[in-house]
Amino acid sequence: MTADTAAPTAPAGSLARTGGPKDDSNWVEHVLGWTLVVVVAMFVTQVGWL
């Protein structure tokens, strides 16, 4: 098998997406991530683990 036959046949732009978040929702991920951090910190302090 040569390198030419092992190369993918589909161009890079036509690859199927996996259904993940779009690239323009980066700020939503940050907001949700920091919200999760705050909620976990509140839970930890209320339970008394800290």
Mean pLDDT: 78
Radius of gyration: 22 Å
Which stretches are low in confidence, meaning pLDDT under 50 for 5 or more residues running? Answer: none
**What is the approximate shape?**
elongated
Helix/strand order, N-terminal first? HH
Counted by DSSP, the helix tally is 2
Determine the N-to-C terminus distance: 59 Å
Decide which structural class fits the backbone.
mainly alpha
**Could you estimate the helical fraction of the residues in percent?**
40-55%
The oligomeric state of the chains shown is: single chain
| Major sheet size, sense and barrel closure | none
Strand content: under 5%
Overall number of strands: 0
